[in-house]
Design a protein that fits this description.
two-stranded antiparallel ribbon, 2 strands
Length: about 90
């Protein structure tokens, strides 16, 4: 699953900013796109994306759900409808 997510991120990045034979470094985060991935534990997913060439930054959080501003304990206990995610 982890390889699938990393592969998808690489494809999404390459689709808009393809560079022959090597990764192009973005001159400014303003030019970069953003994607959100929910892939289980956000700490593990964030760490994986931090090591992918071309990723400018990562931020862990929650996506979906019906509780405003949930904390880690609420989401981990279930019932909020949120998934751990990485932007």
């Amino acid at each position: 699953m982890r390889r699938l997510l990393i592969g998808l991120a690489l494809l999404l990045g390459a689709a808009g900013f393809a560079a022959p034979r090597r990764w192009r470094r973005f001159p400014s985060p303003v030019l970069a796109g953003a994607a959100t991935f929910a892939g289980g534990c956000f700490w593990c997913t964030e760490s994986d994306f931090d090591h992918v060439a071309g990723v400018v930054s990562t931020t862990s959080g929650y996506t979906g759900g019906h509780v405003a501003n949930p904390d880690y304990e609420q989401v981990s206990a279930g019932g909020t409808g949120h998934a751990e995610s990485v932007k």
